[in-house]
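Sequence and structure are no longer studied apart. As an example, we show below a sequence and the tokens encoding its fold:
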Amino acid sequence: MALINQKGGVGKTTTAVNLAAALQEKGKKVLLCDFDPQGNATSGLGIDPREIETTVYDLVIADQPDVKKAIIHTQWVDLLGSNTDLAGAEIDLLGLERREYRLRDVLQPIKNEYDYILIDCPPSLGILTLECLCASDSFLVPLQTEYYALEGLSQLMATVRSVQKGLNRGIRIEGIVLTMYDGRTNLAVQVVEEVKKHFGDRVYATVVPRNVRLSEAPSHGQPITAYDRLCRGSEAYLAMAEEFLSKNGEG
């Protein structure tokens, strides 16, 4: 499942890390694939991106990638790590065969070893995000409850439709998760209403609130459930994991 939003700072990586950890806590075997050159999902799990021997970049440009060698076993989830090398993949991929499917080919040998593979996409709609969408069965959109959110969402859905037409016909929308929610503002309430009007039950009932502890956790290299079990952010992601499993017939 790709976690996707071309806008940065919307809680995408926060959702990738914390949903993955919450699903693992609920008994699922989870792999988190960091496909963002910023490497924030990697550092958010306590791994220094500069010290990874084999990154996801190495795998997608290799002729015969050894994905098992690259998996990092953290105390929360398994991880395919990333660092700034991945930024060069935009250019390196141009000359490669089946360039849109390189990530899919990397993940294919281990697909059946995990209940869920979550892919943290970069904040753009370029070739790297295309890789993520071609490798995924579904996509989840973390959406900040602010004015420009809906505008960006329509662009994103147009990109997904073009992928569905030619590159990955089977990809479906997993849902939309509303993040950084502040119920005290009229705007946040209006955005929620508008998104629900267009996407109905695809919008998760679980809403992620603005929460200082969620912002602090990555600097400690921990998911929120480990950093502060009792905060509102932790409660939200545990509830989201429950809802996710329920939507996938496991609730």
In short: The longest strand covers residues 172-179. The chain has a mean pLDDT of 93. The chain has twelve helices and seven strands. Strands lie at 2-3, 30-34, 72-73, 78-80, 116-120, 138-144, 172-179.
